[in-house]
Design goal:
By secondary structure, the protein is of the alpha+beta class. Helix content is 21%, strand content 40%. The protein has one domain. Strands 3-4-5-6 form a four-stranded antiparallel beta sheet, with helices on one face. The chain has a two-stranded antiparallel ribbon with strand order 1-2. The protein is globular.
Length: 99
């Protein structure tokens, strides 16, 4: 499957990384676009597995990474609307999990 990003045709995974069923055109959502960095979310209609597909356009080419995730698009939309956590909150959470 291909999508048009910044006037360039980008190939994204055509089949689910878990079950191998082909993705449908409407299963791709753009989550983030920041300069030359993009994040896409794909969901398999057959097994409901989601993939985060990260793409970076650099001077020397394109770097892409696909990562399986259990987060659905709705979960990621909620995270985008939330506030950033502070360093203190992160340290506190780490210390609580450690104990």
């Amino acid at each position: 499957m291909s999508i048009n990003v910044k006037g360039k045709i980008l190939k994204i995974p055509e089949k689910c990384l878990k079950c191998g069923v082909s993705y449908q055109e409407n299963s791709v959502d753009t989550l983030s676009e920041d300069g030359n960095f993009f994040v896409f979310h794909l969901t398999c209609k057959a097994c409901n597995t989601s993939v985060l597909f990260h793409v970076v356009f650099g001077q020397e080419g394109v770097l892409s990474v696909a990562t399986l995730t259990d987060a659905g698009k709705e979960d990621l939309d909620k995270l985008k609307q939330g506030r950033m956590i502070t360093t203190d909150e992160l340290i506190e959470a780490y210390q609580e999990m450690k104990n």
